[in-house]
Write a structure and sequence with these properties.
Blueprint: H1 11-20, H2 28-31, H3 39-47, H4 51-61, H5 65-71, H6 78-81, H7 93-106, E1 121-125, H8 129-140, E2 144-148, H9 157-160, H10 169-182, E3 185-187, H11 198-203, E4 208-211, E5 217-218, E6 231-233, H12 234-242, E7 253-257, H13 261-272, E8 277-281, H14 293-301, E9 305-307, E10 310-318, E11 321-329, E12 335-339, E13 342-345, E14 349-350, H15 359-366, E15 376-378, H16 381-384, H17 389-415
């Protein structure tokens, strides 16, 4: 089974990596982290053998510090900015962060505490990274936060949209557990727009509402055969894998269309669940694919095929079941036909479109209209197009600051 090697650093390896850090003044790695996790600070604490302080630095900046240690795009963010790249390779910041969070768990450390307690109430819609980060900031400030989500478990894309071998549910539950300890309530299996509305939340006493709905609608590839059996969009495929609802794929041939992290996750999930042959088909070259470098390395180490510069043309079927996929080369000359039992398309996600009677309000938020005067805020993938987990965390934190300022101003006016 394939795992992210950054989670596996030994104590000795972490000490060696930390010793390589230049401890830069005004560190570029810290500037490059959207969530403000400040690697220079937690590495400095680690070198001083202050593990508790290092964990507090991570957790107070990023409630999903354990998750991001495994799935963050370090190579495009803090590690790319690392000053060490001028003389050697970048510091393995992700591996160090994963080690510190594991030590936090071993020590049973409480890294977040409430500053005060208030009667202020906020609802977060969606239990993904943006809402979790928003709730973390607010609950520390004493706000009573309830997160509403349509799925059985919290975590959003973390729980249902990432290959389990790359991010285990145990890590997600551990990070979210910090919120629960602080008093954040989770209401699962309840769907916004169907089971409740904005007006009902306000009637229940929620003074502000944050929408972190994520992107749960897959973009569809328009080629013949797309409606055949055993053709899945990426989100549905990963959902079935993560919930153990996927029938056995042992010995089958799986083709994944796409070149991003989600496509890589689908391929890894297929391989880890017994598929005999897994092939990623991408219209550009491997270096041009948007997936992070660790994901690209993982698929190569796992023996997953990567066919570049080919565009899918048709999914062939027999008795409505997939038998193969044909593609045309980027050169408009070459062609190929690949045997397939399952085809997964991972070419991007977009927002859902049905929010009941609140459709108009939510669409305004999606289109980045300012509805803060109504106490309505939004952030994360539904606004940024699905950049990364750490960016969703950053968005959630920033909106939480706006929400808190709004609550204080509203409370002030109510008193007057």
């Amino acid at each position: 089974m394939c795992y992210d090697k950054k989670a596996l650093l030994s104590h000795k390896a972490v000490v060696v990596e930390a010793s390589r850090c230049l401890l830069c003044y005004d560190a570029p790695c810290s500037k490059a982290c959207p969530a403000g996790t400040n690697p220079e600070k937690f590495i400095r604490s680690l070198r001083l053998k202050n593990i508790r302080g290092a964990a507090e630095t991570i957790r107070q900046a990023n409630i999903l510090g354990g998750v991001c240690a495994l799935v963050c795009e370090y190579d495009k963010l803090c590690e790319e900015a690392c000053s060490n790249t001028a003389i050697d390779k970048a510091i393995n910041i992700g591996g160090i962060q994963a080690y510190i969070i594991e030590q936090e768990r071993i020590m049973n450390q409480v890294s977040l505490k409430k500053e005060v307690s208030t009667d202020l109430k906020v609802a977060c819609i969606g239990a993904g990274p943006a809402s979790i980060a928003c709730a973390a900031y607010l609950v520390v400030k004493g706000v009573q936060v309830t997160i509403f989500d349509k799925n059985e478990k919290p975590g959003g894309v973390l729980t249902y949209g990432i290959c389990p071998s790359r991010l285990s549910q145990d890590v997600i539950d551990y990070d979210i557990g910090h919120l629960k300890q602080l008093g954040v309530k989770f209401e699962q299996n309840i769907c916004f727009g169907k089971d409740f509305s904005i007006s009902e939340l306000k009637q229940a006493g929620f003074m502000a509402i944050f929408f972190g709905l994520g992107l749960w609608q897959s973009k569809k590839i328009e080629i013949p055969g797309i409606t055949a059996e055993n053709v899945y969009d990426a989100l549905n495929f990963l959902y079935l894998i993560n919930t153990n609802l996927m029938c056995s794929i042992a010995g089958l041939n799986v083709i994944v269309i796409g070149g991003g992290d989600v496509a890589m996750d689908c391929a890894l999930a297929a391989k880890n669940n017994g598929a005999e042959n897994v092939t990623i088909l991408y219209r550009r070259s491997l270096p041009e694919s948007p997936a992070c470098s660790e994901q690209k390395k993982s698929i190569q180490l796992c023996g997953i095929n990567f066919i570049s510069n080919f565009i899918p043309k048709e999914i062939h079927q027999k008795d409505n079941k997939v038998v193969s996929l044909s593609a045309t080369g980027r050169d408009n000359y070459s062609t190929l036909n690949i045997k397939a039992d399952i085809v997964v398309y991972a070419i991007g996600q977009t927002n859902e479109t049905d929010f009941g009677k609140d459709n108009d309000r939510v669409k305004l938020l999606i289109n980045k209209h300012d509805l803060s005067k109504e106490g309505l805020f939004a952030g994360g993938d539904m606004l940024n197009g699905g950049k990364s987990v750490v960016q969703a965390v950053a968005d959630g934190k920033e909106k939480a600051k706006e929400i808190y300022a709004y609550l204080l101003e509203k409370e002030k006016k109510d008193v007057i």
